[in-house]
Amino acid sequence: MTDAAPLVLLIEDEPQMRRFLRAALESHNYRLVEAPTAREGLAQATSRTPDVILLDLGLPDGDGIDLARRIREWATTPIIVISARGKEQDKVAALDAGADDYLTKPFGTDELLARLRVALRHAARAGTADEPVFTVGDLRVDLPARRVFVADAEVHLTPTEYKLLTALVRDAGKVLTHRHLLNAVWGPNATAQTHYLRVYMTQLRHKLERDPTRPRHLQTEAGVGYRLKVE
Amino acid sequence: MTERRPDPETLLAQVREQERRAGRGKLKIFFGASPGVGKTYAMLEEARAKQRDGVRVLLGVVETHGRQETTALLAGLEVLPRHKIEYRGITLEEFDLDAALARRPGLILVDELAHTNAPGSRHTRRYQDVDELLGAGIDVYTTLNVQHLESLNDVVAQITGIQVRETVPDSVLDEADEVELADLSAEDLLQRLREGKVYVPEQAARAIDQFFRKGNLIALRELALRRTAQRVDAQMRGYMAEHGIRETWPAAERILVCIGPNPAGARLVRAGKRMATSLKCDWVVLCVESAGQVVSPDDREALIENLQLAQELGAQVVTLSGHKVAEEVLSYARAHNATKIIVGKPTHPRWRDKLFGSMLDRLVRGSGDLDVYVITGDVTERPAPRRATAGVRPTLAQYGWGALVVAVSTAIGAVLGRYASITDVAMVYLLGSGVVATRYGRGPSVFAAFLSIGAFDFFFVPPQYTFSVTDVRYVLTFTVMLGIALVISGLTLRIREQAETARTRERRTGALYAMSRELAATRGERELIAVATRHLHDTFGAQVQFLLPDASGRVAVPVGTPPGYPIDDKEQSVAQWAYDRGQRAGVGTDTLPSAQAFYQPLVASQGTVGVVGLRPAETKRFEDPTLQQLVETFAGQAALALERALLAEQTQREQLEIEAERLRTALLSSLSHDLRTPLGAITGAASSLLEEQSGLTAATRRDLLKTILEEAERMTRLIANLLDMIRVESGALEVQKEWQPLEEVVGVALIRLDVRLRDHPVHVRLPPNLPLIPLDAVLIEQVFVNLLENAVKYTSAGTPIEISAVGEGSVVRVEVADRGPGLPVGEEARVFDKFYRAPGTVAQSGIGLGLTICRGIITAHGGRIWAENRSGGGAAFRFTLPLSGVPPVPILAEAAREAQQG
User: Fold this and answer.
1) What's the whole-model pTM score?
2) How confident is the model at residue B379, as a pLDDT?
3) What mean pLDDT do residues B539-565 have?
4) Which of B532, B562, B630, B742 is the most exposed place for a label (fewest CB within 10 A)?
5) pLDDT > 50? residue B383
6) Residues B721, B850: Cα–Cα separation, whole Å
7) pLDDT band for position B692 (50/70/90)?
């Protein structure tokens, strides 16, 4: 089954969206199972064991966030939520409930496929050891040596900055909520202190990005968190 | 030319009368000389005829007194159940006004117009119920006996010896649409009485003895006939005036009735009414409150009653204050073209006139061409108890002080007596009496005078230490001492009274002025009410409550004002009545006097804006018409101020509506244009692609697909803008501020616009020491996106855009500037208006909401946004974000520590 085309469970009530996603996914060699309601989605997630779940947050028969939480109780299947702009709090709630990433409507096929690839890669890597050296663009992080390079020039990071960077590297490509990062770097007591995170992220950008106001790697997901962009 | 035109004033009065009557029900009075003449019978007969004609007839109240003929007529008529009122353990049955109003019959029969309602009814008198029925557009039939007519009340009393208490104002009869006289000769009536057709037998004999004497009946019949004739005469005159027929009498008469604070006035008032009726002229009842006059509470009450009586009888009531009564009366009479003056015969002893001069004498001498009628005041009506009290009753202490002064005088006299003559000692006593008179009023001064005389006699007049007097001259000394004490105390009292009156007037005028001034400087309904409440409370010493109408016209305590006193259902209904009718009600009035408070409608220039209730600690005070007038004056000021506030609010609302309407139009046109255009492009492109036969090249297909994508993106932006606008407009904009670096927000915006900004170099200049700013990242990002899109839209490709920020004390000022054509001069502020588009912009531009949304977001952050043209060309959009609240410090310390380590 792992060799076959990945199976996507699409939980979405709008037929037009399903039609577009079906066309986009099938033409890019994905298999698709569709569920128009939360109830059916949960049933399909149990019976079909999909490789990745696309979950719309605005379902007519139930709360998408709740569904994400229930699936996460017994499965590690990556969940990508789909939501409208201006509903940042819903996204954060879904991510904190166990979703792995999100897409903001309207989105293009490129963006959808990129998110799916990241999700599948993370799922495949789960359980295996991290690659010792992470590279994206001209940024290189040598994890065993705890050294960071930009365009082959070593950059000196403070311990906190380094801790933050490794947290991002560990889940490269995925969006990470403020709460997740604060917990990873400062511990569970600091999860409300988002300004810690913001200040360190700014410092990191100044050290790692060519133009900190137009970051290519350390991107902000407004109102949600941060993402280390890999593509 | 002797064309007879109706007098314009008369015509105007007719128009007003017609207007007043329009929509009002018609009143028909069945008038009679005495009970038993067949009024109720006639009324019922006519009502039955009406019912046969299809009119909905309702029997409100009909008293048959057990008369069989009358009872027979009730059959087949709808009867209104009586309203039961509990009063001191007795159940009284009364006419149910509210039920009658609710049923809205075409015609209602309300017997016995002069009836007095049970306590707790809405009105004290039935004729007021009838007035309300008429006001509601219901026709009313009623009955009335001549002895109940107010102006004939005393004449009837003279004839029959029975004082009738239940009287009806003459105006009710005069203003009735129709009056039918039920006439029966005295003999026939007595015959009917004997046959038991009038009262039930056991009552009949007593009634005949007391009231139904033949002489009485003849006199009453004459009165009734005369009164009816007068009415017919008035109708005739009205007809003549209406049709331009010249008046037979050039009646330019005006009668002035002068009454004073004593019970005799009632007779004068009635006499005035009769004379005015027979002369067919206006009449004024004038009361001059003399500043120096001491009025006992009983007399004051009598005056108030008489003034009320005058008002009921249709007189214009005027109260003046002045010292010289005769002069005041004459000057008023001259100023108002009075022709006749009615005054009462003097009742005081003749010596007073000799001493102080006679008011009557001065009046007659000064009257010139005015006729003066002197009429007997009816003093037997209620003997006025003479009270020696002079305004304030002197306390025992004041007598004590009087005695002390005399003792001191004696002591001084004892010392002085060794060197001076006995007359000098008398002077000391005189001085003492004077002092007491000026300070302690009449009683103590007379007391001190007698004490002085006694002491002087005992200690100084030979033979000393006895009360006997040898020299007759000393008797003169005693008399002079007493006289001087009386004169001085009288003068002092008068001055004090005058000062008090002046002070009261001054205080009231001052209070009115203070309130007007404060009201003029106050804005907003709630604030105006607070100001007026405070002033009314201070001036009238009562608890004050304003009640304003809601949309359905129900008056209620305005939201957000502390209640002056509890308004229960009963109080509300009294206030409601006052508001609906524009008349006073409650305490001190004839309408619902059992209420807790006095209700004055707030009548402004364009109608009644509400009601104010005053709950006095002492209800008696509010029976004074002058006080009620004063309340009205105050209420008038408050009403005008409230009306002003309401009008201002209304104007503002209308302007908002106009603005909303303009926006709706703009929104519709923009939606129809801005959303249809991309839709048209998408539909066109998609249908071309679907056409199988078309030989589209790969390049063209790609082009069409690109169009679809671009147009869809454009629509996405438009809809996002519209949604943001709605959030800003509807107040649903939730600003979730967090302290964050501006750089990150700018970064997000730049990444989001990456594609659109490819032709415009963006220079970001943020100082490294820029503090964290409390902001909602998502919203401020939108501001940057909109400003950047705006810059892209209005500048040509390759034009650079600059983003900069600078900390300025408690705010951070941010700027997004371009080097484009700049803003049209003078339009810098207008660019933030909804649907504003710079003149001459291409169709590709947006919907004209971007900058409005920016303003909404910045305002919600507590900042300010504005636009300027830059020196050297281009436009600059600047906004401020306040650094309010406590910035998070600890992280900076940690960062600094780490920076040192790193």
Assistant:
1) 0.46
2) 47
3) 83
4) B562
5) no
6) 7
7) low
Q: Which residues of A touch B747 (CB under 8 A)?
A: 205, 212-215, 219-220
- Between CA B705 and CA B147 the distance in angstroms is 103
CB < 8 Å to B898, chain A: 158-161
Ordered by start, the domain boundaries in chain A are: 7-126, 133-228
Q: Please, are residues B454 and B474 in contact by the beta-carbon 8 Å criterion? A: no
Sign of the CA dihedral running A107, A111, A116, A122: negative
pLDDT at A181: 92
Mark yes or no for CB contact A223/B778 under 8 Å. Answer: yes
C-beta neighbour count of B594 within 10 angstroms: 13
Spatial contact of B16 and B130, defined as CB atoms under 8 Å apart? no
ipTM computed for the complex: 0.84
The shortest CB-CB distance from A213 to any of B712, B740, B746 is to: B746
Quick one: pLDDT band at residue A79, thresholds 50, 70, 90?
Answer: very high
If you average pLDDT over every residue of chain B, what do you get? 80
- Binned at pLDDT 50, 70 and 90, residue B380 comes out as very low
Per-residue pLDDT reduced to its tens digit, B33-78: 888 888 888 898 888 888 888 888 998 888 877 777 788 888 888 8
Tokens standing for residue A119: 């999700």
- Select from B743, B754, B770, B889 the residue whose CB has the most chain A CBs within 10 Å, as the one to mutate to test that interface: B743
Pick the CATH number of A7-126 from 3.40.50.2300, 3.30.70.1130, 3.40.50.410, 3.40.50.300: 3.40.50.2300
User: Closest Cα to residue B180, out of B47, B72, B291?
Assistant: B47
| Radius of gyration of chain B from its Cα atoms, rounded to whole angstroms | 44
Q: Look at residues B542, B623, B610 and name the one whose alpha carbon lies nearest to residue B576.
A: B610
Question: CA B694 to CA B53: how far, in whole Å?
Answer: 86
DSSP A165: H
- What contacts B630, CB < 8 A, 6 or more positions away? B508, B540
Residue B374 CA to residue B380 CA, distance in Å, equals 18
pLDDT digits (tens, 9 = 90+) for B595-617: 888 999 998 888 888 999 998 88
- What count of CB pairs under 8 Å joins A to B? 78
pLDDT tens digits for range B118-172: 877 888 889 988 988 888 889 999 999 888 888 887 777 777 777 777 888 888 8
Whether residue B389 is predicted with pLDDT greater than 60 in this model: the reply is no
Distance CA B454, CA B443 (A): 17
Name the residue facing B781 among A156, A160, A222 (closest C-beta): A222
Q: Which residues of A touch B (CB under 8 A)?
A: 85-86, 88, 106, 108, 156-161, 193-196, 198-203, 205, 212-215, 219-220, 222-223
CA distance B12 to B242: 11
Least CA distance to B902: which residue of chain A? Answer: A158
Tokens of B485: 């004490």
Tokens 């149910």 — which residue?
Answer: B96
Q: What is the mean pLDDT of residues B197-208?
A: 61
Of A157, A199, A213, the CB nearest to B747: A213
> Among 3.30.365.10, 1.20.120.450, 1.10.10.10, 1.10.860.10, what is the CATH number of A133-228?
1.10.10.10
C-beta atoms of B778 and A88 within 8 A: yes
Mean pLDDT, residues A106-119: 88
Phi-psi region at B141: left, alpha or beta (left = phi > 0; alpha = psi -120 to 50): beta
- What are the tokens at B102? 């609710």
Decide whether A7-126 matches A133-228 in CATH topology: no
- Predicted confidence at residue B721, as pLDDT, reads 80
The structure tokens listed for A36 are 């128009």
Please name which of B783, B816, B820 lies closest in space to residue B799, comparing C-alpha atoms. Answer: B820
Distance CA B893, CA B774 (A): 19
